[in-house]
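Please fill in the sequence for the structure shown.

STRUCTURE ENCODING:
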């Protein structure tokens, strides 16, 4: 109850700031983060947001695949995605993706607002903002492309829920989505984009659709860290709606601990994802491989300062299995080098134990141990977070500690995800230059 009351207070304070500003609908710039202004007839009561601060990613989700059975998209329906911020700011902008589409995606109406409470489809009073794209309220996103909205003046608190709503009047599928959101979002018939009340949003959904990023303009945040990973980073077994992925616990640390770098945390996990092999038509939700998506999902994010990589277990476990540890390690090195080319440090994770899981065997365990040995020896990443050591059972080191095991002997429990977040040395995020490998 205290958490809900605190959340409501944050939303109320944000609403007061917004009401005083009288900026009801605002959009500036061309979606690339500059401050050029394009004011049109669609921008009622426009007011330019403060230029101070920088654009920083506060939330993201990787566009994993095309949603099954959506050849015509969601024509004539409003999609209200619920997302949880890491850092706050004075303005916001969103990224919409048609990466897995085959036809142009036409959005004629889009909004952003603060939720009244966690996971609620109802907007906090006075926080609804219409989004524009290069000054227009409508946008057509070509197949395979993405677009960033103009800035909307909205005081966004850290650790708050945002509602990002889109309406498409015409068939446009297949829908680009993130299937394992661990968060309830909503759909409504008709254009209910600016409905503050959530009563029209009668259909619930476990997916995020079209929305792949939210940035804030912040004076406090120094940038963002991007976490590239698989289902363990995706938080597949975390409590739905609780924001108990390990990246959520990390965001809490960065907000609350004295001396911690003020970074947004961007979760780019895809369940089933591998370093070396793209998802096939038999497992499309596994997404493009880490190597394939590294530029788009990591290097292109707003304000990225450091990268954390948690990947490799699916290369070992999923057919066709990769039991040559050297190939997995080389894939990790390639990603590190790409980050170094942008001047970014990389923190790499050891692979968690999975004894008791159906994929466990002497061969797969040998490959895991070889990958971990190479990671610990150095020359792969700038620094290492040893998730294996932090979560394994000392009495049975090829298994997760029972309280850290979700029950499937592969994915952590909520407490296991918390332990992962606290295993990371925050000082490793603050290095000014990549280490020499």
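FILLED IN BY: designer on duty
SEQUENCE:
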């Amino acid at each position: 109850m205290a958490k809900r009351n605190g959340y409501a207070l944050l939303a109320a304070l944000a609403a007061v700031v917004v009401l005083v500003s009288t900026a009801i609908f605002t959009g500036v710039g061309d979606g690339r983060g500059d401050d050029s202004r394009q004011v049109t007839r669609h921008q009622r009561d426009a007011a330019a947001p403060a230029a101070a601060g920088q654009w920083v990613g506060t939330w993201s989700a990787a566009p994993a695949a095309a949603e099954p059975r959506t050849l015509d998209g969601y024509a004539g329906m409003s999609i209200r995605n619920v997302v949880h911020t890491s850092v706050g700011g004075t303005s916001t902008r969103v990224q919409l993706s048609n990466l897995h589409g085959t036809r142009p995606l036409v959005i004629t109406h889009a909004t952003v607002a603060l939720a009244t409470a966690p996971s609620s489809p109802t907007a906090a009073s006075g926080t609804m903002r219409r989004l524009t794209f290069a000054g227009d309220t409508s946008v057509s996103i070509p197949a395979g492309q993405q677009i960033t909205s103009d800035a909307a003046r909205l005081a966004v608190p850290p650790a708050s829920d945002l509602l990002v709503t889109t309406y498409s009047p015409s068939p446009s599928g297949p829908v680009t989505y993130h299937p394992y959101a661990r968060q309830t979002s909503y759909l409504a018939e008709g254009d209910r984009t600016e409905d503050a009340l959530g009563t029209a949003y009668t259909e619930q959904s476990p997916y995020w659709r079209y929305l792949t990023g939210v940035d804030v303009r912040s004076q406090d945040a120094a940038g963002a860290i991007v976490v590239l990973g698989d289902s363990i980073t995706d938080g597949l077994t975390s409590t739905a709606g609780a924001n108990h992925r390990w990246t959520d616990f990390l965001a809490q640390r960065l907000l609350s601990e004295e001396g911690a770098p003020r970074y947004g945390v961007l979760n780019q996990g895809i369940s089933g994802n591998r370093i070396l092999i793209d998802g096939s038509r038999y497992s499309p939700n596994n997404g493009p491989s880490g190597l394939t998506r590294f530029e788009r999902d990591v290097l292109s994010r707003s304000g990225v300062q450091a990268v954390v990589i948690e990947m490799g277990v699916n290369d070992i476990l999923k057919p066709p299995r990769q039991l040559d540890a050297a190939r997995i390690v080389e894939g990790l090195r390639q990603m590190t080098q790409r980050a170094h080319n942008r001047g970014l440090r990389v923190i790499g994770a050891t692979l968690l134990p999975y004894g008791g899981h159906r994929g466990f065997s002497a061969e797969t365990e040998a490959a895991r141990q070889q990958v971990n040995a190479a990671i610990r020896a150095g020359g792969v990443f700038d620094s290492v977070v040893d998730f294996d050591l932090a979560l394994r059972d000392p009495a049975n080191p090829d298994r997760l500690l029972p309280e850290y095991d979700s029950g499937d002997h592969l994915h952590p429990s909520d407490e296991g995800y918390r332990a992962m977040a606290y295993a990371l040395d925050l000082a490793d995020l603050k290095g000014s230059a990549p280490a020499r490998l």
